[in-house]
Structures are given as structure tokens and as C-alpha cells.
Amino acid sequence: MASWPACGPGKATLPLARRGFRITAIELGGALAAEAQHRLADFTGVSVITSSFEDRTPPTDALFDLVYAATAWKWVAPDVKYTRAAALLARSCHLAVWDAGHAFPTGFDPFFTEIQQVYDEIGEGDGSSWPPPLPEDQPDPTATEFEASGHFAVVATRRYVWARHYSADEYIALPDTFSGHIAMEPAKREHLYREIRRRLAVRQDGRLTRHWSAVLTIGRRL
User: Fold this and answer.
1) How many CB atoms are closer than 10 A to CB 72?
2) Are the CB atoms for 143 and 184 separated by under 8 Å?
3) What's the CA angle centered on 104, arms 102 and 105, to 5 degrees?
4) Which residues, 6+ apart, have CB-to-CB distance to 202 below 8 Å?
5) Nearest to 137 by CA among 145, 148, 129
6) pTM of the model
């Protein structure tokens, strides 16, 4: 039996539902919860609750074997997320969290070095050294959080790196969902997107390769 904070539209819940798990999925957004309910309607062991993870009252008659969050754990209130997860779990059961971000393995696409210069020119660079550390050299802050919470001992950490290819339109649709780009001054954002299109237009296939890294952290309830 699993609890799933911030399930979104249910895309990542579906594979677990197909494996026969009983799942209580929690989603704050009403529209996303409705989409998840529609997507998971065929699975009688899955329920979708419209609520925040923080405000959801834990059941008094049952504990979960697993609490799992995909790319959403960082948005749960830091002062309560581990105590709430621990309260939902039977002793020695598990909390599993994964997050995904941009990765820069050896031989990453030079497009990103070029476009980083544009970010710096328009004052939107973050001041970090370039290039970023290799994926295998990146720390796992979630594991540190698990241990510091006093509720969980880390039992496994796994990193997965993969690549996706994007056209200019496909790639621009991605940062266009990021809060920093949404909040960017329109003139800066338009200039950035023009530069993305210009640089990809001179490539034979008009595409870039972006690497992603996902780190799965699993903790055992103490």
C-alpha cells in the first residue's frame, strides 16, 4: 500500500497501478487531480484525493508500506514533510523520493556552453562556475535531508542519466514552463529564445541533445 504526494496528472502513478499496488494519491490542484482520477479510473485499488500533503489527515486505522514522491518533494513544506511521512509509515517501511534535472556528462552538447553565454549577457546567469560538475560528482542533498530528519536512514541511492533530442520549438517549450523563465523580463526572454532558434537553425538537423539526471533516494523509517 503506497501514499503518493503530489501525483500531478497521474502519469507516474500509472505504472505502479498496473503492477497491482493499492495507492492513495494526493494532489493539491483540482484540475490535475481530476485528470489523475480519469487516467486511473480503471484501477479500483487507486484513490486520488484533492489536498496538499501537509493538510491531509493521516488515516487512524492503517499505515502505509511506502511513501513515494516524484519531482515534487522539494515543494512540500520542509518543516513537516519528514514528520508527516514518518507518521504515515509503519516502522522499517520506506520513503522513496526522486527528482530530475539538467545533467552535463562528459561530451555534453556544446550548445549549452554557447547559450550559457547568452544567459550571462542578459543578466540571467546564476554565477556558478562552468561547466557544472559531472553527474556522478553531484551531491545528493535529499540523502542529507533524510538523515538529518531523524526519522529515516538512507538505504539506497541510485542515479540515472539519459539523453533527449529537441527541436527548437520542443526545447523552448521546456524552459517556458520554468518559473525563472516565466518571471524573466519579456524582452530578455524573447532575446534568449531568438538566440536558441538562431543557433539551432545552423545545425544540419536543427536539434540539440539535453541530458537529464534523476536521483532516487530511499530511506527506511526508523
Assistant:
1) 20
2) no
3) 130
4) none
5) 129
6) 0.84
Separation of alpha carbons 95 and 83, rounded Å: 11
Instruction: Output the nine-digit C-alpha cell for 78.
Output: 520542509
At residue 116, what is the residue type?
Q
pLDDT tens string, the chain, 222 residues long: the values are 666 667 888 888 999 999 999 999 999 889 999 999 999 999 999 999 898 888 887 666 778 999 999 888 988 988 899 999 999 998 999 999 999 999 999 999 999 999 999 999 999 998 888 999 999 999 899 999 999 999 999 999 999 999 999 999 999 999 998 889 999 999 999 999 999 999 999 999 999 999 999 999 999 999
Residue 90: what residue type? A
Helix (H) or strand (E) holding 59: none
Extract the C-alpha cell encoding 208.
540539440
What are 220's three cell numbers?
527506511
